[in-house]
Amino acid sequence: QVQLVESGGGSGQTGGSLRLSCEASGYIDGTLCVAWFRKRPGKEREGVASIYRDDGSTYYANSVKGRFTISQNNAKNKVYLQMDNLKPEDAAEYYCAADRRSSGGYCYTGSGFTYWGQGTRVTVAS
C-alpha cells in the first residue's frame, strides 16, 4: 500500500517555472516507479514523466522534454517535477502515480499504475 499527496500547484507565467512535489508514504522500496500525469479539459490524460527509485532512470513525454525535470529525494520519499519555460498548454490537473516495476526500463507512463494522488492544479497565464 502506497499513499501519494501532491503539492505545489498554482499559477505560473508563460516562460516561468513551477515545482510540483509528490510525497509518498506506506510501503516504499527500490522497485517503486513514480510518474506524473496531467489532464486538460476535453483531452485525454497524458503521461508527463516518470522516475525509478532504485537507479533514478527517467522518462519524459515529448511535449515536455527539455523543459520539465523529474527528480527524487529518497530520504524524504518525495518526487519532484520541475516545470520550466511554461507554456499555456501546460495548464492542467497534475497527478502523481506509483507502482512497482522489476527494473527502470519498465518505468514509463505508458504502463499501468496502481496508486494515485488526488491531483494539484496548474494554471498558466498566457
Explain what you see.
The chain is an all-beta fold. It has no helices and eleven strands. Strands 2, 4, 5, 6, 9, 10 and 11 form a seven-stranded mixed beta sheet that branches. Strands 1-3-8-7 form a four-stranded antiparallel beta sheet, with no helix packed on it. A hairpin with a 5-residue loop joins strand 5 and strand 6. The radius of gyration is 13 Å and the shape is globular. The mean pLDDT is 97.
SSE inventory with pairings:
Layout: E1 2-7, E2 10-13, E3 18-26, E4 32-39, E5 46-52, E6 58-60, E7 68-73, E8 78-83, E9 92-100, E10 115-116, E11 120-125
Parallel strand pairs: 2-11
Antiparallel strand pairs: 1-3, 3-8, 4-5, 4-9, 5-6, 7-8, 9-10, 9-11
Give the gist of this structure:
By secondary structure, the protein is mostly beta strands.
Features:
seven-stranded mixed sheet, 126 residues, mainly beta, single chain, four-stranded antiparallel sheet, 52% strand, globular
| Assembly context of the chains | single chain
* Biggest sheet architecture: 7 strands, mixed
What fraction of the residues are assigned to beta strands by DSSP? Answer: over 45%
Instruction: List low-pLDDT spans.
Output: none
Strand tally is: 11
Number of helices: 0
